[in-house]
Each structure stands twice: as structure tokens, then as C-alpha cells.
Amino acid sequence: MTQTPPFDAPTFRRQLHQHPELSGQEQHTSRAICEQLQGFGLEPITDIGGHGIICIIEGEHAGDTTLLRADFDALPITEVASHGHISQKPGIMHACGHDGHTTSLLKVAEQLSLTPPPCGKVILLFQPAEEIGTGAAAMLSDSKLSGMTIDHAFAYHNLPGHPLHQVIVKPSTFACASVGAKIELQGKTSHAAWPEHGINPTSVMLEIIEFLQALPDQYRDVFSLVTVAHVKLGDAVFGVAPGSATILATMRSECNQTFAAMQQALSDKLAHLKLHSELDVHLSWDEPFQAAVNDEAHYQMVKQQAQALGLNVTELAEPMRWSEDFAEFLAQTKGALFCIGSGEHHPELHNPDYDFPDPLLETAAALFLALINDLHQIESLERANS
Ligand SMILES: [Zn+2]
Ligand SMILES: [Zn+2]
Question: Which UniProt keywords apply (predicted)?
């Protein structure tokens, strides 16, 4: 009988790191994950909402279903590093640590393949296209997943700026809703000497910028933010009065209802401007994310299991300003998103010199397994039924 070698997680992670793939184009990464799961004797289900994979591990007895999620897409960033596993793909790198998230979930897969949970079902979910905010929703709407009842959902993100292995938790909103708003104003150019012969978008453009910057003031009770990211008016010439303008802004809020109200306010404002100017006004939304809202009991579970493992736990006073499309799972299933510190002086996420810290592979897997252990023992089934 041939002995399968134990899973070498850091080596696997570094291989993923060397071969990063952009959101929506992760076919090779997906295949590598799938082959590794098969190597553990598991039966992955592939091509879910694109290159997504799920792997279901069932216990002997009935019980709850828990979903653990890891993402696996990379970013259009050129890596600057001297280590031996630098990206082999020019202009693409694992700058957010999704190579690590996925590898730690594979460690969980290895362990559960050896010791399945006594009760219920564990769904290990490997998700593509997180960075563009579409992967989670695409997987959830796929018929291979959409019919399943899921009782608990957990995911983590590594987080530079915090001590290595520190578990970062927060009740309620963990990460903000966000969206990119692209506003295009189309008028008509004219000779700069006769601006009155054209339709000049300058004053409307300035009014929109002022409106965007003042918008969060209307929603002071929760954290909300609008950042005007880019503005273009006409072309860089002296002889022409501008005939078009483009504004790009990013909107954020910790509250999904407030966020929807902010989006509606912008739509209404633009509809009003369109009606009262000769300009054609067009609004489009890009990369929408809901706020990731943790369930109280599940946030407590993460905190308790992390403490039981002897990990340092800290609680955020405010939600993360960034967004995470795990929010889509939390909108449907009770669960929690948390972070694990990547080191206080570790390069930031999306920096060109970022690299996932391998010691976290073990920590993340241990915490996931502790959560599974807590939710899928015979006693937890009895507890739920009593
Ligand atoms: Zn990222
Ligand atoms: Zn990320």
C-alpha cells in the first residue's frame, strides 16, 4: 500500500503564489485545489459560479451544516520581492494573501478527511473573484449550492498591522459596504472664444463633486464615506470649451440601509440635474459590496474558540473600511468574518512587497477546526435539541 505524503502547506502556498491568476481567470488555481482535495480522498464539486469549488464532508449523524470559505484570486500588481517564490506571471501577484487563505482551508480539508466531524456536514468552499466583488454572489446563485441549507458560515482575512496570530473580531458590521460610482456628463464642445455655443458640463460637474463630498454628513449616526477618486473635464487643450466630464467616486458605509439611501440620493440628484440641464447624465455602479454583518452568537464563537486556543484576541472599535464579498454569505446565513494578524510591520495588503505569512496557515486551520469541533460534536447536537 502506498503511503500518501503529508500535505506540505507552505510549499503548496508558495506554488500558488508563483502562479497567480486574476479574478475570473483562476482555472489553474482551481485545478490545483481540486487535485489536492482529491489527493486527500475527498470529492470536490467544481465549476460553481465560475471556477468555484465546494467539498462536502459529512458526519455519521445528522446535525448542522457549517460552511468555511477561502478565496483564491490574485491582483493586477507587479510583485517586488527577492524570495524564491516570486510571481512567475508579469503584472499579477497574490498581494492579498488569498493563496494563504486557500492553503489554510486545505489544511482543514486534510484534517477532516482523516477525522470527519461526528455530526452534520462541513462545506469547504473555495471562492474565485473576490477582489472584484462578484465571486460570492455567483457561487451562491449556482444551483449546485443555492439549494443547500447552511446553518453557520465563517471566513477570515489576514491583516497586516496587527501582531502575528492575533485574532481580530467585531460584533455586528465587520467590513463596510462599498461601490464605485461612475458619473458621465455629455454636452457639446465649442470654440473657447464662444463657450455659449456649446453645452459646458463644468458647473454641473462641480455641483456633483460638492454633493458627493457633503453626502456622508446626512448620515452621521453610522460610519459613511465618499471619496472622489478621479475627475476628467474636456481635453487638455486651450482652444476648446469642454463638452464632457467624468467623475469616479467610491462610496462606503457600515450600514446596508444607509448605503442604499446614499446610492438613492445620488441617483435622485443626477436625475434632477439631467432634467434641469441640457446635459446627458449617466450613472453606473461598479464593484458593489454589501456590508459584512456578523451574527452575535457566531462572533462570540470565534472569540471563545480563539481564546481557548490561547490566541491573543482583540476587538475592533470600528468596522474595517474595506469590503469583503463574504458579506453575500452573511446576508443569507448566520456567521462571522474575522481577521488574523499578519505581523505589525508586515507589508500592507495590495502592496507590491506583500507575501502571506506562512505561520498563519497553522493558526487559521486550528481556529477553523476548533469551530467545527465545537459545532459538530454529538454533545452540540444534543445541546441544540434540548
Ligand atoms: Zn484584496
Ligand atoms: Zn483579500
Answer: Hydrolase, Manganese, Metal-binding
